[in-house]
Amino acid sequence: MAYALEDEFGDIIKKARRGLDLSLGQLSNTTQIPDPDLSKMEDYLLKPTADQVSKLADRLDLDADKLLQIAEERWTPAPVPANYDPALEMVTISENVGGWPVHAYLLVCKETHQMAIIDTAAHPQTVIRRANAQAVPVVAILLTHTHGDHANGLPEIQQAFQTPTYIHRNEPKPESATPLQLVGHGDEIQVGLLQVRVLDTPGHTPGGCVFYTRNTVIVGDAIFAGSVGNAPVSYDGLLSSVRQNVLTLPDQTYLFPGHGPATTVGEEKAHNPFF
User: Does some domain include residue 95?
Assistant: First the structure.
């Protein structure tokens, strides 16, 4: 059985190395781990020793104990309890894009029976079918960011539900059938009685953001269970924004990412080697 996390040890050290703008040769020189061995570790072909994990964590500014837990596949987050919040329902829609699973979400206000679609998993017909199965009105479409696996198919969803689409004002604009509603940090979007707050998490993309309501955050590719998204825009910016705007929330806040299992703020503070 494959390890349940989105990112394994090799993904984590590669993301940290690239974030710090280090070549394999530079990392090898400072850790005394041969360049070919590092390459194999990043490609899942070689498991590191505990001593190697410690050296890599020190050079890559990662937490060594947390990194070792993931290297030895000793941690995954606890499953989200059913009906964990009496005021809302979270429906996860997983579809393969390019051979890898991606999540879209339906956020339902139980009191008013209104719903938001968050991201598209690039499979609009699946999202439309699952949304229609809820038999409640869609009042908003929210995009955490506009990479193709999260925003492709948006026009079809817009045409199906005729509802506003909200996107961060700094994010590159996707193909859209209707005018986009631009939002920023601290803005609130109403979904029934749920006040959904926008929190900035740039770095993966220029205007990446997360959507926070009650004890639930849909985090896109800002943070995964035990890892973070790639950060071609700003590695430091991504880490600092997640640290400031996500990990300061209460420990029992549930985080629903674009890839991999859901987790909590408390689990990530205890187990994510980037923090």
Answer: yes
Per-residue model confidence (pLDDT) at position 191: 98
Single pTM value for the model: 0.96
* Separation CA 108–CA 87 (nearest Å): 9
Can you name the residues that pair with 190 across neighbouring β-strands?
Answer: 195
Residue 4 domain-assigned? no
Q: Are residues 94 and 140 in the same domain?
A: yes
Tens of pLDDT, residues 186-226 = 999 999 999 999 999 999 999 999 999 999 999 999 999 99
Residue 81 lies in a domain: no
Per-residue model confidence as pLDDT tens digits over 42-96: 999 999 999 999 999 999 999 999 999 999 999 999 999 999 999 999 999 999 9
CATH number at residue 139: 3.60.15.10
What share of the chain in percent tops pLDDT 90? 97
Number of CB atoms found within 10 A of residue 184's CB: 12
